[in-house]
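## tool: complex_structure
## caller: assistant
## args:
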Amino acid sequence: MKKIRVLLAKPGLDGHDRGIKVIAAALRDAGMEVIYTGLRQTPEMVVEAAIQEDVDFIGMSILSGAHMTLFPEVLRLLKEKGAGTIHLFGGGIIPDQESVELEKQGVGKLFGPGTTTEEIVTYIRSVAAKKKQEPVM
Amino acid sequence: MSGLSHSSKRTLSERVSSALPKTEHKRLDEAHEQWAAQVGSTEELEGRKFITVSSVPIKDMYTPRDVEDIDFLSEVGYPGTPPYTRGVHPAMYRKRLWTMRQFSGMGTPAQTNERYHFLLKEGQMGLSVAFDLPTLMGYDSDHIRSRGEVGVCGVAVDSLKDMEMIFKGIDLGKISTSMTINAPAAIILAFYIVVAEKQGVRPEQLRGTLQNDILKEYIAQKEWIYPPVPSMKLIVDTIEYGTRHMPQWNTISISGYHIREAGATAVQELAYTLADGFAYIEAAMARGLEVDEFAPRLSLFFNSHLDFFEEVAKYRAARKIWARHLKDRYGAKDERSLLCRFHTQTAGVSLTAQQPENNIVRVTWQAMAAAMGGTQSLHTNSMDETLALPSEKAALIALRTQQLVAYESGVTNTIDPLAGSYFVESLTMQMEQEAEKIFEEIENRGGVLSAIDQGYFQRELAKSAYTYQKAVEKGERIVVGVNKFVMEGARVEIPVLKIDESVEREQVQSLRQLRQARDNDKVRRTLGDLGAAAERGDNLMPSFIECARVYATLGEMVDVLRGIYGEYEEPPMI
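## result:
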C-alpha cells in the first residue's frame, strides 16, 4: 500500500518548532512519509514544496497569530496551481472562532494545545480513506 | 530524624555535612532497613512513576546518607559568599524583594505604552518589552514578510519614533527595562540610548537588561538573522560598549528559558545555558576584555517549570557552577563576577488551553519555586497564554500572583529555606554533577558553536520533547484537564485579547510618514557609514546610535548588515 505523504510546514516568521517536530516524529512512527520544510517558509514556498513532493497533506503549524493571513493564502495558491486536492490542515494557537472561520474557507481541522498525536494520526488516516473513495474527476 | 536522636545538639555544619562516624552509618542503615521492610516496594504505584518532570527518578525518602559527601561550608555556605549556593546577596529578600517584571508588549507603540502605565500603576517594579516577530527578525512593518505579524505577538518597532512612543511619560533614569530581543539587539539598544538621551538621561544612568543571547536562538528559539560568527561579534560589541559606557546595564541575559520551552529537561536547560554563558565569556576575552571588566554585568534567565524541588535545586546548582567556573576557569577575582544573577519566568509550555483557570494555580507554585530558588526578578505567566496574548485582567492576576507569593506566603522570611533538606541538597549536587557531564560532551564536540553546527542541541531537545509527549499520551504523566479530570465539551469562557487588523495598517502608515518626514540624505549617509564600519570590523554600537538619531529604521540597518554578513540557514534536522 502506498504510504501517506505529509508535508509539515512552518510558514511565516514563527520559530516555535517543538510541536511540529513532535508531530513529525509521531507521523513517521505511524508509518507515514513526512517531509518537513524547516522554518520561515512563505506560502509560495510551502505550495511549491507540496507539489514537488507530491504530497497528500500539508500540515501547517502557526503559533505566532498570523494564521488568518497564512492559511487562506496557502489555500488560494493551492487552488491557483491546480493542487486543490492536497488537504491542508494545521495547528497552533488559534482561537475557536477563527478556527471555525478558516474551516469554512476550506481549511481542514485545526488542532489546538493538548491534542494528542494519536488524534492527528487518526484524522489523517480517515481523510485519506475518504479521499480514496472519491471518484477522480 | 528518628535515626539521629541526639542530632539537635550538633552544629548545623556537622548535621548537613559529611563525616558521619562509622557507627552512625551503621545505626542509620539499620533504621533505614527497618523502615524499608515496613514500607515494602514503592517503585511504581498504580502506574504512577516517581520521576521529576525531567524524568529523573526520585527516591521514596532521603536521609543524611544522601548528603554525606556535602560539606556545609564549602558546598552550601552562606548567602552572598562563595559558593553562592544560597543566594547572590547576603540578605536576599530580607533587604530587597525580587523585581516584579511582567513581559509585555502588543499592537502599536501607543497601545503598549498604555499597558505599561497600567502595570506600573498596579505595582510592577520594572518594564520588560515584548517585540513582534518582524522586529525580532529585523524586518520593517511594511516588508512583505511582515504581513499578518505586525504587532501580533509583541509591539512593532521600526525606528526611534516607535521607541519614543513606547516610553512616553516614563523616566528612563528611574525605571529599569528589560528588552527581549536578540539578532537585532544592538540596534534596539541604540534606540533605547537615544530615547534616554532625548530625556536628558545619560547611558551610564541606564538600568536594565538586553537579552542579546543569540546562541539559544540557534539552539531553541530560532529567531536568528546572521550566521553565528558575525552574530557573536555583534554581541561582543554590545558587551564592550556596555562595559565602557553603561556600568548599570546587563549587557546580556543568557537564557535557558527558551531552551526549556523547546523541550529541554531541567539539567539540559541548566547545562546548555551555562555553556552558552561560558562561550560569551570566551568571546569577550578573545576581544581583549578582562573577565572582571564585563562579567559583573552578565545576567542569566531561567525557566520555572512544574517540578517544584527540581527547579529549586536547579537555581542553587546554577549559582554554584557559575561561581566556580568564573573563578577557576576564567580567573575572575572580583567577587561580583562570580554572581549568577538571574531572571525567572514561569513555564509557558506547562500551561493548558483546557480549563485555563487551572493555570493560575500552576503559575503560583512555579513562582514560589523561583522565590525559594533566589531569583532576582520574575515574570509570572498569564492564565490565557495558550490562547492569545494576555488580556488586561489575566495580566493583572499574573502580577497579583507574585505579589501574593512575596507578601503573604511567608517564603521570603528566611533565605534559601530549603537548604539542609536531604532531598534538595542531594538533588542540587546531582544536578551539578550531571551538568558537568554535559559540559564535557559539548567540549568534546568542539564547543557550543560546533555543537550547534552538528545539530546536537536541536536533536537532544526534539528527543526530550517527544519523550515527554509520549509519556503524556500513555497517561504515564498526568496533565490535569488534558488527560485526567477532563471536562468534555466544557469551554471556559475567558476574555481573549485580539490584535485588530488596523494595527498593521496604522503601523505601516506611521512608517511611511516617517520615511517622508526625515532627512533621507542624512539617513543614506549614516547607513553608508554603518556599512563601512561593518566592513572594517569596528565596534558597531556608535554607528547604530548615529543611525538611530537620524531615524534610520531597524530594517534598513539590518539590511546593510545582511548584505555584509549574509543570512543563517539552519542545517536540516529531521
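## assistant note: The radius of gyration of chain B is 25 Å. Residues 101-210+487-574 of chain B form a domain with the TIM Barrel fold (CATH 3.20.20.240). Handing back to user.
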